[in-house]
Design goal:
It is a single chain. The chain has 148 residues and is mainly alpha-helical. It has 6 helices and 3 strands. Strand 2 and strand 3 form a beta hairpin. Helix 1 packs antiparallel against helix 4, helix 4 runs antiparallel to helix 5 and helix 5 runs antiparallel to helix 6. The chain is elongated.
């Protein structure tokens, strides 16, 4: 499911009487710490209201948190996530937003493919070193047997 479909799905699921969430409820629901939620607030991803001394979160905040966590799982930076989430809040045409999201995903894919290639090269080198060590150990073992 894409970030766009989550935003649309959550906006359709909103109750007529706008339900508010506490920081504890969101932390429990998404299995993160309240500190992480406050960090996302500091980054401008969430904008809770106040009910006395307590933070209260709207469905919009909940959706933005869900999108933030999904973007993080995709490996996007918080800055990239914020740009994308902010786009979904705008009332403009979705095409530029989707193109920007596609660009970010393609760039991230290229980066991950390069990392995968680097890892495969490193694993091949490790295999060569392992084979050489095994060979040297075998030779060392045969040398001791011949001397005895």
């Amino acid at each position: 499911m894409s970030i766009a479909s989550v935003a649309n799905q959550d906006s359709k699921a909103q109750e007529p009487a706008a339900r508010l969430f506490t920081i504890t409820e969101l932390a429990t629901e998404f299995d993160i710490t309240p500190r992480a939620i406050r960090f996302y607030e500091d980054m401008g991803l969430l904008e809770p209201a106040r009910a006395g001394r307590n933070r209260v979160y709207t469905h919009r905040d909940r959706t933005r948190l869900k999108l933030t966590l999904r973007g993080k799982r995709l490996g996007l930076s918080l800055q990239e996530v914020k740009q994308l989430v902010d786009m979904y809040d705008s009332k403009s045409d979705a095409a530029p937003q989707l193109k920007a999201f596609l660009d970010v995903l393609q760039q991230h894919r290229r980066q991950l493919e390069q990392q995968l290639e680097d890892i495969e090269v490193t694993l091949a080198e490790i295999s060569q070193h392992e084979e050489r060590c095994i060979s040297l150990l075998a030779e060392a073992g045969q040398g001791k047997a011949a001397k005895a």
